[in-house]
Amino acid sequence: MISKLNKKQLRVYKDRLNILLDIAQTINQDHGIDELLSEFERILRQELEVGKIFVTTCSGGKWTNLLISGVSKEEINKIDISKDLLKYTHLENITLDPPENLKGFDAIIPLSHRFKIIGYVLIGDEDDEFTGISPTIKHLKLIQIIANLIIVFIENMRMHQAILQQEVIKKEMELASKIQSQLVPREQNLPRYQGISIHTIYQAHFGVGGDYYDFIHLSPNTIGFCIADVSGKGIPAALLMSNFQAIIRSLFTSNISLKKLINVLNDKVNESANSEKFITLFIGKFNFDTRRLSYINAGHLPPLFYDSQKQQLISLEKGCIGLGMMDSIPKIEEGSLKVPNNSKLIAFTDGLVEIEMDNQITSGQSLLENFITNCFPIGDNIMEIRKYIDENLDQHIFFDDITLIGIGFK
């Protein structure tokens, strides 16, 4: 016959087995994280009579409190995870000698996932004067099993959700990159003129970026062109630049002066960016009949103009502050120069010349100067620059969008 003690033990085992079956069913029913935590709290507090529960987990280097039940904010605020918890790698009963900041708790349960500590469950009795065997200690092993089942499953859910979110972001970035690549003019679609040769390089660092260039036919004898860079990176910069492109396309005509255009563009950027971002811009126009190049440099890196007859390199610096830096631009200076035959111009964004070498940011502009100060055609110069970029991409010296336009004046 089965003794009363054995019957009692069988009931305990049956109760524990039922709890584990309930946990398994809850997990298999595809509940959300909040529902799983709620079920975890219910089992511990109602069925196992645990008075205090504190669950904290680490994801991506950040600790997050998942569950606080029966514990005051003051008790939680005292706990320093790095000092009070990280030293525990195994189940620990601390009823006899609890650390100062963990008084009120009876046990610490480390949570492991792939041999790495991902969190802790702290449990304690609600009644510190409890006599007899503490429910917390009585069911400690069972609580450890339940905690690992549920919390590790939650961690897997979070990792799965993060992967799905990354896939969504990846697809959105691919779509945004595709759309932006259609907005940025391709070299084969640029205007063709007998008097000049145009070559470009465009490479967004994150698939989408805040760089932009354009060439616009203004009249039978005049071409307009620009290169611009939005402060910041990624989607926000790309959105602002897409809007800016549409504005330039609608405003840059043969009937508007460059100074007037800059003032209007500054107003438009202030409306769009809400003082959170600004745009540097180099904008110019070239008249084939007079061979006069007019330009305004709005806070952009000065383009390099190579006078082939004098064999002289000139920085095109005249202009004003960047667009969106102030409500109104206090002073604008327009630059102008006569273009000799076979001269060359390159304009670029800082992603090409600000490079990282030996953990330091340095300037690569002298390399560009060497590429252009020669008698070779602009197409050959741009080919050498493109080769330089391709050879150094794997070295990760570039950390921003790269854009360059080259114009050879025949």
How would you briefly describe this protein structure?
With 410 residues, the chain is α+β, with helices and mostly antiparallel strands. 39% of the residues lie in helices and 27% in strands. The chain has eleven helices and 18 strands.
Can you walk through the features of this model?
- This protein has eleven helices and 18 strands.
- The protein has helices at residues 4-28, 33-47, 73-78, 81-85, 135-138, 140-183, 234-251, 258-273, 350-353, 365-372, 378-393; strands spanning 52-59, 62-69, 92-93, 107-113, 116-124, 196-203, 211-219, 222-230, 279-287, 292-298, 304-307, 312-315, 319-320, 335-338, 343-348, 354-357, 360-363, 402-409.
- Strands 7, 8, 9, 10, 13 and 14 form a six-stranded mixed beta sheet that branches.
- The longest helix is centred in the middle third of the chain and has 44 residues, at 140-183.
- Helix 2 (33-47) packs antiparallel against helix 6.
- It has 410 residues and is α+β, with helices and mostly antiparallel strands.
- It folds into two domains: 4-161, Beta-Lactamase (2-Layer Sandwich), CATH 3.30.450; 175-409, Phosphatase 2c, domain 1, CATH 3.60.40.10.
- The protein is elongated, with a radius of gyration of 34 Å.
